[in-house]
Amino acid sequence: MQLVVARIGRAHGIKGEVTVEVRTDEPELRLGPGAVLATEPASTGPLTVETGRVHSGRLLLRFAGVGDRTGAEALRNTLLIAEVDPQDMPEDPDEYYDHQLMDLDVVLTDGTEVGRITEITHLPSQDLFIVERPDGTEVMIPFVEEIVTEIDLVEQRAVIDPPPGLIDDNAVVAASSDDEEGAGTGPDGAGKGESS
């Protein structure tokens, strides 16, 4: 099975290094020196990782045969694709590869159907399941232990216990109409979109 593990960004310096946008939880395994990666577009690859290092929080890679800035810049926006055994499991039993979670049925703790996972978005603070509901609409479910209570790969389902308002439109917002100073804040004083 082929999985996209990174996207090449811009050239860094003059010796052929490139920045990469990592799309795997195991960059040291998938993007380490010696790794041979297919590419999209296919005409730019395959590429063999020669060196890798972290600089200012960003992964920099150099590929065999790419020794200058011009060659590195020509790789910009190329997707890096690794061959992954579909039976492989992460070392941590509470971690999953994206392909294991795709198309899982999402249900509430009482068994009520919510939908099906169609996409997984990796954000700096957490991962999100994009769940397509039976009516075709989508809902985003944070992949955190407090909400996603169980992943059952045998039954092909994810069990969730969402807080009020996460998957329905019936959330009630309590606010006093004459409390103008508190307008736009939640009960804990946090502004909309902020979390503690």
Overall description:
The longest helix is centred in the middle third of the chain and has 5 residues. Helix content is 7%, strand content 39%. The C terminus is likely disordered. With 196 residues, it is mostly beta strands. The protein is built from three helices and twelve strands.
Q: Structural class of the helices, strands and pairings?
A: mainly beta
Measured distance between first and last alpha carbons: 39 Å
- Which whole number gives the mean pLDDT? 80
Strand percent estimate = 35-45%
Shape: elongated
Strand and helix order = EEHEEEHEHEEEEEE
Main beta-sheet strand count, sense and barrel state = 6 strands, antiparallel, barrel
Instruction: Extract low-pLDDT stretches.
Output: 170-196
- Subunit organisation of the chains: single chain
Helix content: under 10%
Radius of gyration: 21 Å
Q: Based on DSSP secondary structure assignment, what is the total number of beta strands?
A: 12
Question: Order of strands across the biggest sheet?
Answer: 1-2-5-4-3-6
Question: How would you describe this structure in keywords?
Answer:
196 residues, 7% helix, six-stranded antiparallel beta barrel, mainly beta, disordered C terminus, elongated
